[in-house]
Amino acid sequence: MIIAIDGPAASGKGTIARRLAAYFSLPHLDTGLLYRATARVLLDEGSKLDDVEKAVSAARGLALLDFEEERLRGREMGEAASVVGAIPQVRAALIDMQRAFAARPQGAVLDGRDIGTVIAPEARVKIFVTASPEARAQRRALELRGRGEKVDYAAILEDIRKRDKRDAERAEAPLRPAEDAKILDTTDLNIEGAFAAALSIVNGAEAAS
């Protein structure tokens, strides 16, 4: 069983994906980490994020293991990943890695922005997780505050709206729900409520198959 979970930043898709993976004992891949890790390589070597040749080289050099997640979180890395992810050649370089993960015999849970539309269009379960920009900004602010980072809600909201626009308008694999995806709006849901709603969608898809 492949579970494809897509959605914009801070919608709750990552938390839902991890909870579903644990519940069904499936491997999980946060595909956003691939783009964050690619951006991290460029930043560490002092290269520009829009340097296509170096970005593609960084993407091809990644492995799915040993990500230093602490260095891949935060506002800076989210924005950097969005810039790198808009490069078609980078997305192409990472497609095979993601598809191989999805094709594991026992199945998998993947979350990102193009799982149901590009990486695993054959997925049995597709969920598009969304929430209002304001709710997502509030969640991101709480997350950053919990990490000890300085929080500017207005700046976070602006970042989220910029990322939404860039992700939706990019030429390659724009952020959008797959035609057969179930929409899950988490604006007014807590973590438990969002997970329960997602689990209901998965169980419904299983029952119908």
Notes on the structure:
- With 209 residues, the chain is of the alpha/beta class.
- It has a single domain (2-197), classed as Rossmann fold.
- The chain has 9 helices and 5 strands.
- It has helices at 13-24, 32-44, 52-60, 75-85, 88-102, 115-119, 133-146, 153-169, 191-208; strands at 2-6, 28-30, 108-112, 125-130, 182-185.
- The chain has a 5-stranded parallel beta sheet with strand order 2-3-1-4-5, sandwiched between helices.
- The radius of gyration is 16 Å and the shape is globular.
- 40% of the residues are buried.
- The mean pLDDT is 93.
Strand order of the largest sheet: 2-3-1-4-5
Strand content: 5-15%
Q: Give me the CATH superfamily.
A: P-loop containing nucleotide triphosphate hydrolases
- The proportion of residues forming helix, as a percent range, comes to 40-55%
CATH class: Alpha Beta
DSSP summary, beta strand count: 5
Number of helices: 9
Which blocks of ≥5 consecutive residues have pLDDT under 50? none
Protein structure class: alpha/beta
CATH topology: Rossmann fold
The sequence of SSEs as H and E is EHEHHHHEHEHHEH
The Rg value, from CA coordinates, equals 16 Å
Give the overall shape, derived from the CA principal axes. Answer: globular
Q: What is the domain total for the residues?
A: 1
